[in-house]
Write a structure and sequence with these properties.
CATH architecture of the largest domain: 3-Layer(aba) Sandwich
Largest sheet: 5 strands, parallel
Number of strands: 9
Shape: globular
CATH topology of the largest domain: Rossmann fold
CATH superfamily of the largest domain: P-loop containing nucleotide triphosphate hydrolases
Number of helices: 11
Helix content: 40-55%
Structural class: alpha/beta
Distance between the termini: 28 Å
Strand content: 15-25%
Strand order of the largest sheet: 2-3-1-4-5
Number of domains: 2
CATH class of the largest domain: Alpha Beta
Length: about 290
């Protein structure tokens, strides 16, 4: 089942390429309305808030009041959930970053020089002034760059090494771009295998686990004491905490996450005992273990 992640840059004709690839390969193109709706539901926010943040339109006050860690995790989970369905093409939303390590996912960047992009925007929006088109493109690029940095810490998303294929639509016609991507999708290197599917499902379980931890303990729980990793469906919970009940609750919570086959805890429980009224002495011991399928 083909999965293609593609960049979303204004004026590159990437939308035309995506539509052509989807028609040729029988893929579903994910439109921003669906992504924003589902992210808003997961994060408990309004769709307008999510739209403004992801499109770089949020004011300083709106960015301050929104929990960007939560939005980042919800966005990651939504994109990986979509990828796990297969036969899908996702444009934007950090998909090329989130899925670049999954062997069967084809990450594509559609690009073009500014002069070409200006002409495309002028034709589509009816502008007669190239500078007006350039300002619109620069605004869009700045918003996209800001969103990628804020949500995923990505500063160099445009580098060619992040992609399986980079196509310049000023030199390569849309039809040829579609043909190149379709040809790549048929290569054995990008066929879904049991191993590549397992890697994707582990990423999905990790996203679900992080979201569950955020909802139960707050969005800082994975920065303040806990760390979650997943391998072949099994969750490893590590770190340290002074709250033994929270450790037990976390293990039970993770055992109930969809797709988890078992939980192993290596969280160290640290108890602080007053010593000489002015000095604390720490005592640590192994935390309870959690095992077994859900």
């Amino acid at each position: 089942m083909a999965v293609i992640a593609m960049t979303r840059e204004m004026g590159t004709r990437g939308g035309d390429v995506a539509a052509g690839v989807a028609e040729r390969l029988g893929l579903t193109v994910i439109h921003h309305e669906l992504v924003e709706h589902d992210i808003a539901e997961r994060a408990g926010l309004s769709e307008s808030d999510v739209h403004r943040l992801l499109e770089g339109e949020a004011s300083l006050w709106e960015r301050w009041k929104l929990d960007r860690t939560s939005v980042s995790r919800c966005t990651a989970q939504e994109i990986i959930e979509l990828a796990a369905r297969g036969n899908i093409l996702i444009r934007g939303w950090g998909a090329t970053h989130l899925l670049k390590d999954i062997p069967h996912v084809i990450c594509v960047r559609i690009t073009a020089p500014m002069v070409f992009r200006e002409q495309v925007v002028m034709n589509r929006l009816g502008f007669v002034d190239a500078m007006r088109a350039r300002r619109e493109i620069e605004r869009s690029d700045a918003a996209h760059n800001g969103t990628m940095q804020q949500l995923f810490g990505i500063d160099h998303w445009s580098e060619a090494e992040n992609y399986a294929l980079v196509l310049n639509t000023a030199r390569v016609p849309v039809a040829a771009c579609v043909a190149h991507i379709a040809e790549l999708a048929e290569e054995e290197a990008f066929c879904e295998t049991e191993l590549s599917r397992s890697a994707l499902i582990d990423q999905l379980i990790l996203a679900r686990a992080r979201q569950a931890m955020d909802q139960r303990f707050g969005s800082k729980s994975l920065q303040n004491g806990f760390e979650v990793n997943v391998c072949n469906g099994k969750v490893l919970l590590s770190g340290g905490s002074t709250d033994e009940k929270m450790i037990v609750d976390a293990i039970r919570l993770l055992q109930g996450v969809k797709g988890v086959t078992g939980v192993e805890s290596k969280v160290a429980y640290v108890a602080f005992v007053p010593h000489a009224a002015t000095q604390d002495q720490s005592i640590s011991r192994a935390a309870p273990q959690g095992q077994g399928p859900t």
